[in-house]
Amino acid sequence: MEISKGVDGMKNASVGIIGLGYVGLPLALRAAEKGYKVYGFDLDRKKIEIIRSGKSPFKEEFIEERKEFLSKVNASNNPSALKKADIVIVCVPTPVDEKFYPILDPLLSATEIIIKNRQPGQLIIIESTINPGICEDVIAKKFSEAGLREGKDYYLAHCPERIDPGNKKWNVTNIPRVLGAMSKKGLAMAQKFYESIIDAPIKPMGSIKEAEACKVVENSFRDINIAFVNELAKSFDKMGIDAKNVIEGAATKPFAFMAHYPGRGVGGHCIPVDPYYLIERAKESGFDHKLLRTAREINNSMPIYTVEIMQDLLNGIGLAMKGTNIGVMGLSYKANIDDLRESPSIKIIEELEKKEAGIVRFDPYIQSMSDVPDLKTFLKKCDAIILVTNHKEFLEIDPEAFKKNKIRAIVDGMNCLDGKKLKKLGIQYHGIGRK
């Protein structure tokens, strides 16, 4: 395959995408928007049917704005369609197990599918988040075992995904990317492709391993900083200091400070997961990432800490946790989307169940897991509330509505409610690091 002519230098190339989720589907739409013939593969038949009907299988504004291109994504659960693709991009999940060790099964399965349905000279790009060394030590090894040589029979590159679901400013069209490959030709081909679909700089790295390391470093950086402010929140709770106000004060310094804010724990498929890739990979090389491990422990503790705050509030007004109807307001890991991956709400609910609380779940974006049909009913059924997700619908609630519905205590897991007004109304209020 020689990608060299046509629209943006690549008109004759076709693109296959394995995994049509939060990463793969926006990428498929962008490629179709730029004139590529796109073949999408996913094991989920229901998802394929939804895409074929011209709808998105999940809520995402970027996709809604490009619904016209859904019909141009030849979506299928038959991998043989990938034989028609000059470029195959892997966008499958790479989770961790109960011991936080990376699970590579989806990636290995995708690799086997590519090998069985390949065409000569195919460019393979891994967008899934992986730890350093996976492309060379695992994926390329699979190809080698099949008698295929990188740089001759196929080309292997890695461009770690950078997707922020629900972000109206940054999306697959304008977020800068980093790129690494096993050969110079593979790097040049991959760079030409990404430059044809992304309106942002593409930075070639010195090796494919460096590209792999970039993503885990980005999210480990965030995890460490969030852990720092979460630990401050616990400390400042003891000292009667408002952590949010302190952080906003520190942020007035115009250099050498980046504001992060405490909360009920972190979620999504990146921050709670990616640091473990680096921790485990470094362990294999004889290094112990103590700072990363500590950050993970702190952030993993926050859902439990959030429930402990509720316990204290209830104790203060003479209510037992057992039997009290506690509303879990929001289930998704971030505002205004329906993404439940690694959401702190899961652990919060588990803790409430252990304490035998009555639990009322509600998320306007995840109706299938809500216990009530709407916000009005939710408020009526709750004695106390833990706000987990700062959906816009929740931010618009008049504090008087909480009082009217006899809500006696609120734990603000995102520090987004007006605590002063709620207290004036006689409601017990506590944020994360702020009373």
What does this protein structure show overall?
There is one protein chain. This protein is of the alpha/beta class. The chain has 2 domains: 7-206, Rossmann fold (3-Layer(aba) Sandwich); 212-435, 3-Layer(aba) Sandwich (Rossmann fold), CATH 3.40.50. 40% of the residues lie in helices and 13% in strands. The protein has 15 helices and 13 strands. The chain has helices at residues 24-33, 45-52, 61-64, 105-116, 134-145, 184-197, 208-239, 243-250, 274-284, 290-316, 344-354, 375-381, 392-395, 399-404, 419-424; strands spanning 14-18, 37-41, 73-76, 87-90, 122-126, 154-158, 177-181, 202-204, 325-329, 358-362, 384-387, 409-412, 428-431. An 8-stranded mixed beta sheet has the order 3-2-1-4-5-6-7-8, with helices on both faces. A 5-stranded parallel beta sheet has the order 10-9-11-12-13, sandwiched between helices. Helix 15 links the parallel strand 12 and strand 13. The model is unreliable at 1-9 (pLDDT under 50).
Strands, helices and their partners?
Blueprint lengths: L13 E5 L5 H10 L3 E5 L3 H8 L8 H4 L8 E4 L10 E4 L14 H12 L5 E5 L7 H12 L8 E5 L18 E5 L2 H14 L4 E3 L3 H32 L3 H8 L23 H11 L5 H27 L8 E5 L14 H11 L3 E5 L12 H7 L2 E4 L4 H4 L3 H6 L4 E4 L6 H6 L3 E4 L4
Parallel strand pairs: 1-2, 1-4, 2-3, 4-5, 5-6, 7-8, 9-10, 9-11, 11-12, 12-13
Antiparallel strand pairs: 6-7
Helix pairs in contact: 4-5, 7-9, 7-10, 10-11
